[in-house]
Amino acid sequence: MTSKIRQALETIHPISENDWSIIEPLFVKKEYLRNEFILRRGEIEKYLYFIESGILRSYVDRNESEVTLEFSFQETIFCSYSSFLTQTQSQVDVQAITDLTIWRIGFDDLQKVYLETSIGNLIGRVACEIQYLEKSNRELSLLTKTAEERYLDLFKEQPALIQNIPLKYIASYIGITPQALSRIRKRIS
After folding, report:
1. Other C-beta atoms within 10 Å of 166: how many?
2. How confident is the model at residue 3 (pLDDT cuts 50, 70, 90)?
3. Alpha-carbon distance 98 to 105, whole Å?
4. Using an 8 Å Cβ cutoff, are 12 and 19 in contact?
């Protein structure tokens, strides 16, 4: 499976065999069961994850309700970035929505990749730029699109996988109640 990690990283830039021989052994496989927490609010994010299979979500508790901030799907990279980058307490919870298989690299090991490979800094910078653009697009979507448009966008991005996400999480992600989401789903079906 580390070949999938390499393929994902090589969408940014080709990796030499020498660099890959440094990077590959630093990733460790871990499995989580559905509803298991990967990170709890108040903990420090120590890992960057590559999702082999499954879906996870990050969320915050607000006034006794959960607000989903992000879904992450297979063959993507994820972590609680602000906690990871600053090595401070996370403000979010990260939970497996389905059974989840991930490959993770620790903070210190990632620093080793940056120092010891010719490609590490470039890949790290571009990955951060991609994350920034995704967050900016999400922010703009919340400010400029209707709930129905946000739902259709999510459905278009991950049509097969979205069926595995409970509707209450989808509703909180697009900023509406589960009842309002039910009305949207009836209207568009």
Report:
1. 12
2. confident
3. 21
4. no
pLDDT tens per residue, range 150-162: 988 888 887 766 7
Cα separation of 51 and 20, whole Å? 19
CA distance 81 to 72: 13
CA distance 79 to 131: 10
Which residues, 6+ apart, have CB-to-CB distance to 158 below 8 Å? 71, 73
| Among 127, 43, 52, 146, residue whose Cα is nearest residue 88 | 43
In DSSP terms, 61 is beta-bridged to 66
The fraction of the chain above a pLDDT of 70, given in percent, is 98
Q: How far is CA 22 from CA 49, 71, 120, in A?
A: 17, 30, 10
